[in-house]
Structure formats: C-alpha cells, structure tokens
Amino acid sequence: LGIVWRITLFLWIAAAMSVALLKAPLVPVLLETTRVLYFHIPSAWVTVVALGWSMVHSILYLVRRDLRHDDHAAAAAELGLLFCIAATVTGSLWAKSMWGAYWNWDPRETSIFFILLVYSAYLALRGSIEGEEKRARLSAVYSVIAYVAVPFLVFVVPRMYETLHPDPLINTRGKVDMDPMIRWCFTAMLVGFTALFAWLQSLRVRVTRLERRLRPARA
Amino acid sequence: MAAIWAILRKECRSEWRTRYGLNAALLFAVTSLTTVSFAAGRLGARTDLLASLFWIVLLFATLASMSHAFVREVEGRTMLMLRLVASPGEIAIGKLLFNLLFLAVLEVVIVPLFLVLMGAPAPPWGVFLALLALGTLSLAATSTLIGAVIAQTRGRGALFAGISLPLLLPVLAAALTGMREMWAGHSAAGSLRLLAAYAVALLAASLLLYDHLWED
Predict the structure, then answer these.
(1) Is there a contact between A142 and B149 if contact means CB atoms under 8 Å apart?
(2) pTM over 0.95
(3) Chain-chain contact of A124 with B162 (C-beta, under 8 angstroms)
(4) Which among B150, B174, B201 has the least Cβ separation from residue A148?
(5) Residues of A with CB below 8 A from B205's CB?
(6) A53: which residues sit within 8 A by CB, 6+ positions away?
(7) pLDDT in tens, A94-139
(8) Residue B121 near residue B47, CB atoms below 8 Å
(9) CB atoms closer than 10 angstroms to residue B155
(10) By CB atoms within 10 Å of each CB, which of A106, A195, B67, B102 scores lowest?
(11) d(C-alpha A24, C-alpha A182), whole Å
(12) What's the whole-number mean pLDDT along residues A191-214?
C-alpha cells in the first residue's frame, strides 16, 4: 500500500471533485446546493461504515481479547466521529440555504446530533480508563451498545416522523431518475471517501501501535 | 434462575437495611419535580410541554440512582465475592431487575405527584402506562449496563451521567414524542413500536455483553 495507491486516491478524489463542482448539472429545486451533497452524502455514508467497523472490531475484541482489534475499534470510532462532523456541517450549510436556518431540530438533525454525542461519550470513556486491557474491554462493550442505537437513528427515526430531509441514499423508491453524470459523480465520491477512510484508518492504527511500542522505551 | 432471584433478594435486603439509596433518589426526584413545577407552573393546556417535562424528571431520577447497584459493589469491595457465587449474566439480570423495581418505586411516588402538581389532564391510561413501562425498561436496561461499565473506571459518579445520557436520549425522544401524541389525541402506536423495538434490541445486546464485562 505504497505511494502509487495514495497518488491514485488523491487523483481520484480530485477528479471526482472537479467534475462534481464544475461540470455536473444541477438538480431543479436544489440548484447550486446540489454541489454540497457530493460531500454530505459520502460523509454520512462513511460515518455509518466507520462506526459499523468499530462495532465489528469491538465484538471481535470481546471474543478474542486481542488488542489489535481494539486499535481498529478506537480508530474507526474517531474517524466515524470526524466524518459525522463533516456530514453535520455540510448538512447544516445546506439546511441554511434550503430551509432558511442552520439548525432546526429536524428528525435528521436530531438523530445525527445524538450520534455525535454517543461517540463523543465513547471517546470520553476511553480517556478515563487506565490500563489497556480494561480500556479495550469496557469501551468495546460501550461501542456495541452504542451501535444498537445507530440503525434506529439513521434508518428508522427519520422515516417515522415528518422530516424535510430528502430521501436518503438508500431510499425506498430507488432514484432511477437521477442524471447519469450526477450518479457517476456520487459513485466516484462514495468510492473515494470510502478509500480515504480505509487509508486514514490504517494510518491511525499504525500510529497507535507505534505509540504502544515506544511507551516502554520512553518510560 | 435461583441465582438471579438470590441476587435480587440480596439487593433488596441491603437496600432496605440502609435505604439511603432510595431515600436520596426519592428526595432528588421530588426536588427536581418541585423545581420544574415551581418554574413552569400548572401546564394543563400545554400537554406538549407536560410530556417533555415528565420525561426530563424521570431521566433525572434515572441518572441519579441507576449507577448505584454496581458502584456499591466496587466501593464495598464485594464484587469479587459476588462473582464467586453467580455468573456475570446472572448478577447483571439480578441487578437489572432490582433497578427496574427501584425505578418503579420512584415512579409510584413521582408520577401521581407530577400529574397533580402540573395540573395534567387525565391521560388515556392504557397508552400512558405502556409508554411509561417501555420507557422505564429501556432507561433501566441502558443505565444498568453503563453502570456496570463505569463502576470499573476511575471517574465513576462523575462519568456516569455524561456517558449514559447520550444513549438515553433516543429513548427519551421516542417516549416523549409518544406522550405528546397521546395527549394531543393522536395515535401513539408508532412511538410505542419504536420504543418496544429499541427496548428489545438494547436488552438483547446488553444480555450478550454482560458476560464480557469482567476479565476472566
């Protein structure tokens, strides 16, 4: 996973971004705000993927008691939180121009805010436990119970209550009427963001492991 | 089964011996209810606000009392002893049942007091009690598990509210939306289903997790 891979990722995202920002046609009602969606939707997608990754590794840790899984769980939760902030900020910008206010406690806004709080609490919990094994064990338990809330918040709640939010990516009807160019841009950005997450994740995990190896030397 | 029952009886007995947990929680709940009632006055016509305040008072009562069950074992250094006689799952279910009972006792006092003090119109009791029961179950299931987690950390009490509140928010949101719908005369079936599904998911996940909470 060397330099070629990183340059490809850079070029890929840059190309998708340029086409999305400069070339892609606009959706009738959304007009210029269409463009922020190329960041908003991939961020939201990566949030769900990253938090799911964290939950899977938390379960694996509880089963196998191998700290390498905890490294993955912690890194994925951090990155999930980061992408969740990106999704919230881009969504809020979009809401300002479409709905007239940055924040209005729409069900979508409420649920994403709950996710932010839950995973901030996860990081706060990690920070307050001494001892690696214990920290890994307790935060894995928390991460699993936290992910129980995620599908409810992301998929159930916004469909149950009246929301102004447009249909999410995985919608009930299937957006067949989407312009082909827009669809290409979306797909490219989704793939790019997912790969970006994978790369950041591998970096974060490596840093954690290096820190662990260096700790005895420093002490 | 016998172990769960024994844990529940032991919890009740040790609580009854001192009653300081129950007294403190009751005092706290009544005080927060008084504060709300004093600040907001009678709200018979604003049932949307009533529903919110109702669940906020219950949330406070939960946060103030639910970490107690596990923290007490750690502080009294009796956790190890307890684990000799029962499996982690049995201990947890026993404590969860105790916490449910504890919340139920609190609610027997606060709920009528709330309805009277706030001048609430009589709700449709079936829906009201169903919402209350499911909400209480979810609150207790979540906070018992988080209580078990934070009992092993250094922060304990200070940490508990901050860590468990985000997980309790979805419960709170569903329960108070349901109660708003109920008081407005609409059907609360959707919120009830959501609450029930969330409660079942939480319970199932937490029962699986309890076995992994302590080192082997």
Answers:
(1) yes
(2) no
(3) yes
(4) B201
(5) 144-145, 148
(6) A72, A76, A80, A201
(7) 888 888 888 888 888 888 999 999 999 999 999 888 888 899 999 9
(8) yes
(9) 15
(10) A195
(11) 6
(12) 93
Residue B135 to residue A161: CA distance in whole angstroms: 18
Residue B57 to residues B52, B177, B181, Cα–Cα distance (Å): 9, 15, 19
- Angstrom distance (rounded) from CA B187 to CA A129: 45
pLDDT, position A170: 43
Q: Mean pLDDT per 10-residue run, chain B (216 residues)?
A: 86 84 88 89 84 90 83 82 84 91 92 89 90 93 89 79 88 90 87 90 89 78
CA distance A165 to A80: 21
3-class SS at A172?
A: coil
Q: What is the pLDDT of residue B130?
A: 93
Convert the pLDDT of each residue in A155-189 to its tens digit: 777 777 766 677 554 444 445 456 777 788 888 99
The contact set of A with B (CB < 8 A) is 62, 110, 114, 117-118, 120-121, 124-125, 128-130, 133-134, 137-138, 140-142, 144-146, 148-149, 152-153, 156-157, 160-161
Query: In terms of CA atoms, which chain B residue is nearest residue A59?
Result: B209
Q: Give the pLDDT confidence score for residue A86 in this predicted structure.
A: 95
CB contacts of B209 in chain A (<8 Å) are 62, 141, 144-145
DSSP structure string for A3-54: HHHHHHHHHHHHHHHHIIIIISPPPTTTGGGGGGHHHHHHHHHHHHHHHHHH
